[in-house]
Amino acid sequence: MKQLRIHMASFHLHPILVFHYFIVLPCLATVPFKFRSSTHSALSQEATRTTRSNILKYQELPDFPNGTYLDRSSFPSDFKFGTLTLAVKHEGNSSHKVESIWDTYALVDGVVLDGTTPAQGGDQYNRYPEDIEYMVAMGVDAFRFSLAWTRIFPDRSGEPNAEAIAHYNDMIDKLVAEGIEPHVTLWSEDHPQALEDAYDGLLSPLFIDDFATYANVCFAEFGDRVKYWITFDEPNDYVGLAYASNQSPPGRCSSCDAKLGNCTKGNSSTEPYIVAHHILLAHAAAAKLYKDQYQDSQEGYIGISLWFKWYEPLNSTDEVDLASAKQAQNFYFGWFMDPLAFGDYPENMRTLVGARLPTFTEQEAIYLRESFDFVGINVVTASYVTSGTDEESCPTYFNDMNISITAYRDGEAIGEGENEYSVPWCIEKIVNYMRDVYGNPLVYITEIGWGISFTSDIQENLNDTERIQFYYSYLSTLSEAIRSSLSPNTPAPLLSGNLELNG
Ligand SMILES: *[C@@H]1O[C@H](CO)[C@@H](O)[C@H](O)[C@H]1NC(C)=O
Ligand SMILES: *[C@@H]1O[C@H](CO)[C@@H](O)[C@H](O)[C@H]1NC(C)=O
Ligand SMILES: *[C@@H]1O[C@H](CO)[C@@H](O)[C@H](O)[C@H]1NC(C)=O
Ligand SMILES: *[C@@H]1O[C@H](CO)[C@@H](O)[C@H](O)[C@H]1NC(C)=O
Ligand SMILES: *[C@@H]1O[C@H](CO)[C@@H](O)[C@H](O)[C@H]1NC(C)=O
Ligand SMILES: *[C@@H]1O[C@H](CO)[C@@H](O)[C@H](O)[C@H]1NC(C)=O
Ligand SMILES: *[C@@H]1O[C@H](CO)[C@@H](O)[C@H](O)[C@H]1NC(C)=O
């Protein structure tokens, strides 16, 4: 790609350093509580603090690979760069809040490798003014963070907690004063444990009203300044991990498939579908409330963020592999995106899951189709997909897909990495898929991240050459994709807006 020098005028401060800091920041507040695959890990508060205090001092930053360069002028001028935290991973401080489902789950033996709990997370709750200073220094346009339901609206009948509302008001005011757009997520695996105890949380339709009640408080209190709302953060990844493989709370699954998880209760053949259905309806209820009561006066936008991994047929000329890849796409992404775009689940899910897949009423289908101004995409990676086996297995969400996933083709890994691979070309595939399958809705990239391990040596983590290479390759691919979609003979640009990062 063309080598470009930093374009000073487009940054707020210290432009030369911005891009590197932009890459480093994710360590500041990001506690990767949940590593994909069955391991969990966390960065202690002490480590987070050391990282924080080093961010602005860290001068010896590695350069982009091979003399390449990428900067803000590689992107459209209205393209927004941001950074991201989630309450359950980054706020820490358990004072004046009730337990979330993660607080309970983290105490289960073996769930978090080093036993860290959300209460020991990055301490954003107390240190947000400092975090905002770093964001200003980095020159980000937007900060995507989530609110803790467990602080704002701790139980079903209680009043909203004035202290929590004052806290988020101050944080939002400080961001706005610095010219950083607050983008707010309402849920990230952290609804109150009390809802789990009262009615099994997401398994009950009662969740829908409770979520709307919580959302209503947030719109009313913060919507004068918050213009971007995300109801749920990657529920399409969460549901399988939480209700079919015991990798996220509440850790429910069937006993019939012990290789995926050992749970004391649950039903992996039915519960994932019920839970996804309720999440979609809760999203639609909150969106309807926002659109009916707030959008005109507050002039903001609402959407949902979905996890999007690209599934590539192992043999791209083989009919079965092509069908398997499509099946994977539908079970992970179409499961949520099809109801939003078309009002119903993908047809081949219906065929494979049968009566276990719930149905929407006509009215619900309409609400779903009207429920988003944008779709947030959390871009991850890609895998190869081939057909399932004929082997008899118990019906579960994961087995229903009837596919096999591999990271290798002809002995070669799909990208750099160990457990999650860096596959920059997945961005272009995802962008094209949204255009071709879903009719080009407005898409924001709400996360780009790579699950690589931290070491216990903070200095070593700060010398983050692999991650810099990762971001370079993803962002340059994205930049190319935007550029090529702007050429006169191709459809209108699909991507606009917002790029947000998570470590
Ligand atoms: C940098 O060069 C190495 C060696 O030629 C190559 O393997 C790598 O892909 C290059 N990286 C980029 C981003 O071009
Ligand atoms: C949480 O934050 C509050 C307000 O800053 C502080 O008074 C309290 O001591 C903190 N609690 C913990 C457990 O850190
Ligand atoms: C899951 O629920 C279905 C429908 O109620 C039932 O037929 C099946 O036996 C249950 N499976 C397990 C493993 O409990
Ligand atoms: C579940 O328990 C069985 C028997 O102890 C064990 O073989 C299996 O590895 C466990 N599964 C997981 C995912 O931990
Ligand atoms: C890919 O699939 C095609 C069509 O089934 C087949 O002819 C070809 O041999 C396969 N390629 C490999 C490498 O298996
Ligand atoms: C799963 O895929 C295999 C291989 O394509 C096929 O033989 C089998 O019939 C499929 N099972 C179901 C339930 O569709
Ligand atoms: C940073 O890492 C690179 C590659 O892993 C290494 O060559 C370099 O010496 C390290 N720099 C510092 C300051 O540790």
TrEMBL record:
Keywords: Glycosidase, Hydrolase, Membrane, Transmembrane, Transmembrane helix
Gene3D superfamilies per UniProt: Glycosidases
Pfam family, one: Glyco_hydro_1
Biological process per Gene Ontology, one example term: carbohydrate metabolic process
Recorded GO MF terms: beta-glucosidase activity
Domain of life the protein comes from: Eukaryota
Transmembrane segments: 12-33
Family statement drawn from the similarity comment of this UniProt entry: Belongs to the glycosyl hydrolase 1 family.
Protein name in UniProt: Uncharacterized protein
Gene source species: Ceratopteris richardii (Triangle waterfern)
